[in-house]
Amino acid sequence: MNARRFGMAWSLAFALVAAAPTFLQAQGTITGRVTQSNTMRPLAGAQVSIPGSGIGALANADGRFLLVNVPAGQKSVRAEIIGFGTQEKTVTVTAGQTVQADFLLETQALGLDEIVVTGTAGGQQRRAIGNVVGAFNTEKALELSAPKALQQMLAGQVAGVNVSIGGANVGGGGSVMIRGTGSLALGTGPLLYIDGVRANNQVVTQNNGVGSSRMNDINPEDIERIEIIKGPAAATLYGTEASNGVIQIITKKGALGSRARVDAIVRAGGQWFMNPADRIPDNWGLAADGKTILRQNLYADETAAGRKLFRTGRLSSYGLNVRGGQEKLSYFLSGNLDADHGYHFNNALDRTSVRSNLQLAVTDELDVSADIGVIRSETTFAQAGTSGTSGLIPMILWGSPLSKDLPQRGFMVGPAEYQDDVDVREQLNRATASSTIGYRATKWLAQRLVAGFDWTDNAQSTLYPKLPIGTPAFYAGNSNGDKSINNVRDLNQTIDYNLTASFEPWAGITSATSGGVQYFYRSRRNVGATGNQFPTPAVTTISSASVKLSSETYTENKTFGTFVQETFGWHNQAFLTAAIRADANSAFGADFKAAYYPKLSGTWVVSDADFWSFDFVNSFRVRGAWGKSGLQPDALDAIRTWQPTVGPADQPAVTPDKVGNVALKPEIGVETELGFDASFLQNKVSTEVTYYRKFTKDAILEELVAPSSGFSGARRINAGEVSNQGWELKLDLAPVQTQAIALNVGATISFNTNKIEDMAGKTIQADTRGRWQHVEGYPVGSMWTKHIASAEWGGPDKKTLINIKCVGGPGGGVKNLPESEAGKYPVQACADAPFFYWGNPGPGRNGSLNSSLTVFNNLTLSTSFVYIGDTSRFNTTEWYRDKTQNSSERSVQLRLGQLDPVVAAGIQLVDFEESWFERDDFFRMRDLSLSYSLPGSLISGFGVSRASLTVSGTNLWTPWVHSSFRASGMDPEAKKPVESGRNYNWQQTQAPLPASLVTVLRVSF
Asked: What is the pTM of this model?
């Protein structure tokens, strides 16, 4: 079925191209080669064009290009590619003849002349932007490695951007956070734009512990470039909702006048659970006599019995795209099929994606583009992070040797083969479309209109089939059959208009005055149903269940904003920008009319000044920015709501639900950013250094409602303040650049300090047990616990804890209280003892290291490492093993009275979570790849212009994990997705990230 849809889409795409009108007139031809100046390495993908003519081409794998149908006469030819300086040459074209034009481009490490479209009014050179912009082209990442998903490709690319990969499931995903947590109650994710249109960026978490990211729906092969702006200082023009930053995905486009280039991509490989024998811990127990210690390793037992718990999952994908253009029309068309299987037997992803990007130069003044991408996927997930009813990893880690000889075979509830029969499924249909109209009425006035939508239809379901009569209750309470469905339909619509008037009022002084309006609309319809107790195993429809429930919710949100901006430039060296945006949003309280977000930024390319005489410094730029943006409340937070109920005489009625808050307003992010960019030693060394300080004003808190009001629960108010401040460093080295060898090394590191500045005198628990709390002076969602000062084993059998005392005092400010200092604090009864601060959920540090070594321009060895530091989490897996399942070694020692009594008291009592707090800092090799580009002399005879073969391994080695990390956690990256306002950084039976090895073949025609 997928292949048929794929073929139909491609037939339609090629028909559109074939039917496009041809405007070309045969004249002369320009040919040549584009190479890097110091290494003579061909620059594949370089764009060569004749400015203003609509004639252009993309260089092939050997750097060669061909411009055909060039009118006779003298022509200026330009060659450019991101990361290199632009070069122009003048040639004379003779009718019917071919003229040669070769280009040697020099590395431009800082990319000051490249155009940035995110956070700017219609596009601006990087040199004119006062804030840092994280940007990278995907072509190199795709060729040197084999990322399976967008988040994997994004991780480690930009300083200050923390990407949580998620768990082991193919089709899954994690979250993205930029410059720390800024909200106490709202989300931390940035806005996502695709070609100027706001897109769905949700992390979807189902009740069975699995999660998926809408960001990972997007095919990495369709992406040309990713731009990231990191906070309010840069995101002012995006207004409300933008204080967490903005990620913009720019998809691939064709080039006017260029010949069609067809790329075919085939990926094949596998992924597996790395070294399960050493990572899956033993389960412990005490026999009925209360003395005999039992011990079992489920993985070893099942393997010895010939029952495989895990497999090597097959990974495969097939992609085809074509890009090119005629005199007036350029195009990019693509199609991709993914068929991936995880190392769990019930985890698989099937996805079809197609894209069509068309650009039409109607006149010299008017251009129109239409971009559309369609995705259809179906994913089955292996459960993880559940409360114990199912899921292979929970059944293993929470199992018990007491049931080793029973039907459970030592698994917690049921053996592995029954867990694989639980069907957790996500069916997704998604369409993203954008259209851009650009009109230049005069040389000094440019207008742009972007309109589009992003629509997702996500059908989630979980099915526990009814077990046959006589089968033990391997699904616990779901053994008679249980099914839940949740259909979520999201729509995001964008209309964005701006115009820019550009002048040069005095010699060397430029002015760009911009203004615009935006309208954003977002809606969500959620229809859910559950049914349990099916009559037979063959019946699985909810309508056939004995007990049925259903629900439906609908929300919508609208934003209307307008902005004005003025940018002054001085000799293309120094720039000053001031802007203000005003927003009205339907989620604001009735008494709050509009939010205003100002911005001021400046930048100076000092190395372009006449007085600059430091030859070893090739480029040096200083920059600074200050600005505001917002984060809106949830759609219904400000509104007084009522709940339906059954009234007198069984008539429908309503009862008070939420009191609302007519004065509720958005959280306001205020940020100052300072930094510099520099390159040294003929651009062999380049660096980007940034300091930022960000405050979230009017942070939303929850306030209990007086019962006398008739409403229960809490309402949301603006009363808090949160700060994030830190440093970001990016360093790129190119120490060896010759025709034989090219060595490149890159690194990023960021440091962030997160603190709650004001809580209006409140302390709020971020979970029911107080493991995470929001406390003034400490990080958001910081980890807290009581401390045991002393305890003894007593009783006739010396197995009863007595004389338990806790550390007293005011609490707060004591981190990992050393035993030697316990005597400095008063001792008191544990019930009245205070909580003490333990750690930061973080991360406070985030870094990456990557390198590539190219030999003779065709063989490249590359590596990438990621680092996360100053981060702590709660190990719920071990908590259950110690306290509930009694399946850990410590739980056995406790019952025998052999455990340190202080440790034993911490396990046995409530509010003592220190035993399960752990640091999950790590340093991991994310990718190791070897890529070979076939020489043109070998492939040109087959009509192939470019061919490469890449072998890439992922997550093959983790050199370092913090010493406090427990074996039951298995993987420091496997954790539950962060939920807004609660449960910051915790692990509960998440399966470890898979190791993988894939081979990718790329062929261009």
From this structure: 0.90
